[in-house]
Design a protein that fits this description.
This protein has twelve helices and ten strands. It has 280 residues and is an alpha/beta fold. The chain has three domains: 110 residues, Cobalt-precorrin-4 Transmethylase, domain 1 (3-Layer(aba) Sandwich); 108 residues, Methyltransferase, Cobalt-precorrin-4 Transmethylase, Domain 2 (2-Layer Sandwich); 52 residues, no CATH class. Helix 3 packs parallel to helix 4, helix 7 runs antiparallel to helix 8 and helix 10 packs across helix 11. The chain starts with a strand and ends in a 7-residue tail after the last helix.
């Protein structure tokens, strides 16, 4: 009978956030797959957990996942942990979970700390709908594509960033998204935990003068429907009304239907633009 893979969440700073269940599971499994065994040994020693560990990280995630699946198929129970928080999110655990499903192995989450969710709920930004972006790509071309996709995102955005890149990223966000409401969260659950609710421009100005420390999470308010409509109308204003009408007529609409669509695009009445149809 195959073993089980446990995805065990660990504290993101404060060791008191470790759950009783997490301690029990880590003590009972046959092996712990850790992102960095040098870091995780401190956690295990603190809770007097003596289970053997093996290294499982971004650079060995494919071949090591095969080895772990083989052990699971032999009947071994394995727990995966990341350096902090919930494994499997922006983490090599995603590959291991995929291979476990392919092999018919049970995957069991052991809930606990998650930096993204804790930052979101304490940010003061809307929480009903959100998009988790993690770290933006480092490749310039790919990064620009992702930033461009976020321009019209209506959900609250969650973005991770390292302190030494925070100012650069905030500058790019201001250039791409404009001056949105935002909260910069730092050192969550740790001694110097801070939640700075502000705007992207103000955050950029502040952290340009005050060097940020500790891992950062940027929570950004999504674009409202009102703002989307305003941007859309502003885009149409680059065309004159006659050009706008002719554009729709060139696409096959008759004059009446073109006028109706132009009025809708610009948020004005048909009567206000009727005079522009004379001579078309």
């Amino acid at each position: 009978m195959a073993g089980k893979l446990y995805l065990v969440a660990t504290p993101i700073g404060n060791l008191e956030d470790m759950t009783y269940r997490a301690v029990r599971i880590l003590s009972e499994v046959d092996l712990i797959a850790a992102e960095d065994t040098r870091n995780s040994i401190k956690l295990l020693n603190h809770f007097d957990i003596n289970t053997s560990m093996t290294s499982y990280h971004e650079h060995n995630k494919y071949e090591k996942a095969d080895e772990l699946v083989a052990l699971l198929l032999e009947g071994k129970d394995i727990a995966e942990i990341t350096d902090a928080g919930t494994p499997g999110i922006s983490d090599p655990g995603e590959e291991l979970v995929k291979k476990c499903y392919e092999a018919g192995i049970d995957v069991i989450p052991v809930p606990g700390a998650c930096a993204a969710i804790n930052a979101l709920v304490a940010s003061g930004q809307p929480t009903r709908r959100f998009a988790f972006e993690a770290f933006l790509p480092l490749d310039k071309k790919e990064r620009n594509i992702v930033l461009d996709e976020l321009k019209k995102e209506t959900r609250t955005l969650i973005i991770y960033e390292a302190p030494h890149r925070l100012v650069k990223t905030l500058n790019e966000l201001v250039e791409t998204l404009g001056d949105r409401e935002a909260t910069v969260c730092r050192e969550i659950t740790k001694k110097h935990e801070t939640f700075f609710k502000t705007t992207l421009k103000e955050a950029l100005s502040y952290y340009t003068e005050n060097e940020p420390k500790g891992e950062c999470i940027i929570i950004i308010r999504g674009l409202s429907q009102e703002e989307i409509e305003k941007e859309s109308k502003a885009g149409w204003n680059e065309l004159s009304v006659p050009e706008h009408i002719k554009l729709y007529m060139s696409q096959g609409l008759d004059k009446k239907e073109a006028l109706k669509q132009v009025a809708k695009d610009r948020g004005i009445s048909k009567r206000d633009i009727y005079e522009y149809t004379i001579g078309l």
